[in-house]
Amino acid sequence: MTEMDASGLANIFLTLGNHWAAKWLALLLGLRAVWTVIAWRRCPQMRGEGAGMSFNGNERLWKLRFAAVMLLGIGLSVWGLLRLAREGAEAPLALIALVVGIYLFTTEPVRRTLADARKRVHDSVGAPTHANNLSMLRDTHVKLAGAEVSIFLLFALGMTVA
Fold first, then answer.
1. DSSP tag of 127
2. Fewer beta carbons below 10 Å: N end or C end of the chain?
3. Helix, strand, or coil here: 9?
C-alpha cells in the first residue's frame, strides 16, 4: 500500500469517526455481537435442555429471506465500493453501506447453517450421531460469534485509530 493509499483510507476513517451514523452503526454492531455471544452461551440445546423444542420453520420463507438478505448485502457492498471510489472521504455513508453489506453477506449463511444445525441436534436426540451434531452446533455458534465480533472490532478500531 502506498503512502497516498494509506492517507486516503485514513481520511475516510477520520471522516467516518466523526459521522453520527457510524457511531450508531458501531453501537448496533456491538450490541448484536454481544447478543450473539449470549445466545450461544444460553443455547438450550448446547445445555442439554432443548429436547422438547419444535422446529416447524417454513423452508420456502427461509430461502426467500436468505436470497433477499444476500442480495441486499451484495448490493450495499457494491454501491459502497463504487461510491467510495468516486467520492473518497466525502462519502462516509458509502463506507457504512460497505460495512453493512459485508456484515449481511458474511453472517447470513452462518445463520442458515446454525438453524440447520439446531434442527439436526433436535432430530438426533438419542441417536449415535447426537454428539457429532452437538459439536457442529457449537462450532457454528463460534463461527457466527467470531464473525460478528470481528466485524464490530474492525469497524470500531478503524473509527478510533484514524
1. S
2. N
3. helix
pLDDT digits (tens, 9 = 90+) for 149-159: 999 999 888 88
How many CB atoms are closer than 10 A to CB 137? 24
**DSSP of 40-72, one letter per residue?**
HHT-TTTTT--TT------HHHHHHHHHHHHHH
Q: Where are the domains of the chain?
A: 3-161
With beta carbons less than 8 A apart as the criterion, state whether 134 and 121 touch.
yes
**For residues 92 and 21, is the Cβ–Cβ distance under 8 A?**
yes
Q: How far apart are CA 19 and CA 106, in angstroms?
A: 24
- pLDDT, one tens digit per residue, over 109-146 is 999 999 889 888 888 888 888 889 999 999 999 999 99
pTM over 0.85: no
